[in-house]
Amino acid sequence: MSPRTLTIPRRFNGPPTSGNGGYVAGAIADCLPDPTVQITLRAPVPLDRPLQWREAPSGGITLHDGEQLLAEAAGCVIDAADIAVPPAPDVAQADAAGVLGRMTARSETGNPYDHCFGCGIARHDGLVIIPSLLPGAAGEAGVVATTWTPSAELAGPDGIVDAPITWAALDCPAGFAWGARLGQHTPMMTGRMAGDIAVPLRAGERYVVAGWPIRQDGRKLHAGTAIFDEQGRLRARSLQLWLLLRT
Fold first, then answer.
1. 62 vs 59: CA distance, rounded Å
2. pLDDT digits (tens, 9 = 90+) for 173-193
3. Is residue 207 within a helix (H) or strand (E), and if so which, with residue range?
4. pTM
């Protein structure tokens, strides 16, 4: 089949010059019919220019910038043994953890992700999802959380939040979970996301976004994230692989 195109608008950056990993993964997932999709990011995804995606011979799709492979995606099954979703955090505790996370972010200088669409504290048009450790046993297990209410401009006319936005909300909490364990300024990046949306999110409703570390294999950091509604029902989840950057 002929290549089709996908453009990541500049607004949806992670690092200053490339796409937010979660938003990119969600935009690619939208090109597939599967309810659960795994996206492997092979290179930083450029902003504001058409990228080519095509069907892969082995199934799924690949995303390219000219001859450069940027990402691979295919339908998958998330193994429950790999992602044991913890109980939904208490809303009040998650809200307090988010307040602490944002206060800490405002007090820091030189954070290269201040303008990230997902977690940038300097963004007025981003998600500003900045979790911190929960108190008690959840925090001892490494669970970070915050509350988040999607605005109407992140949704379609029916009030349903666009899928790439939900994937973006699922992305950064995994980094915060590992940052809480290894140090928040540990250089790392999203390498792979497998995710699904059980029930689409709606603008104007408050949610709890949580992330937790699973295991470390050398430079490979495995993590899970989830979004719950205020009644504690699971709305979306992801299983992620982050990579420690070589220094």
1. 9
2. 999 999 999 998 899 999 999
3. strand 207-217
4. 0.96
